[in-house]
Design goal:
This protein has three helices and six strands. The protein has about 160 residues and is of the alpha+beta class. A six-stranded antiparallel β-sheet has the order 1-2-3-4-6-5, with helices on one face. A hairpin with a 2-residue loop joins β1 and β2. The protein has helices spanning about 25-45, 50-65, 110-120; strands at about 1-10, 15-25, 75-80, 85-90, 120-125, 130-140.
């Protein structure tokens, strides 16, 4: 189920935007989370990167480390003022994520290291039981609709096609 809302203006000139979708905790569900988030960012005319990398890492973690048969995970995007917040909620609240220090030849274990490097802020919220939410925030430049500004929050958009 996909849910999108746009609340009345919280501050003059700032809409609060919200997009949420529930997906199966599988590699396919994680890939779909990235694709749907990319299209939502595109429709909001927001920069795609690094947001879609954050979505990909958080969704992959939910699908890989928090997989419980019959229980889905939820991805939510919020835009409030000049902040994009990405949340991934799963049903394994007893397993809190921790950045790893993988061996140089390891094929996995770098997801949260990437989240830490790409996000302006990130963290974990427990509950309600048995859930947890891992979130990451990106600061958007005040002119995030202008892809030529050069700010981190105004990176060029990927062309469609």
């Amino acid at each position: 189920m996909i849910h999108e809302t746009a609340a009345p203006e919280a501050q003059p000139g700032h809409l609060i935007r919200n997009f949420s979708v529930q997906l199966s905790p599988t590699p396919r569900g994680a890939r779909l989370a990235r694709l749907l988030a990319t299209e939502q960012l595109r429709s909001w005319e927001l920069p795609l990167d690094p947001a879609r990398q954050l979505v990909a890492e958080l969704a992959a973690n939910a699908a890989t480390h928090s997989r419980v048969p019959g229980r889905d995970f939820r991805i939510t995007l919020y835009v409030v003022a000049h902040t994009l917040r990405i949340e991934v909620t799963d049903t394994c609240g007893d397993r809190l994520p921790r950045p790893q220090d993988p061996a140089p030849d390891a094929e996995s274990g770098r997801g949260l290291v990437l989240v830490e490097a790409l996000a302006d802020r990130w963290g974990t919220i427990r509950g309600p039981r048995p859930r947890k939410t891992v979130w990451a925030e990106l600061n958007l430049s005040p002119d995030h609709g202008n892809a030529c500004s050069g700010d981190r929050g105004a990176l060029p958009k990927e062309p469609r096609g």
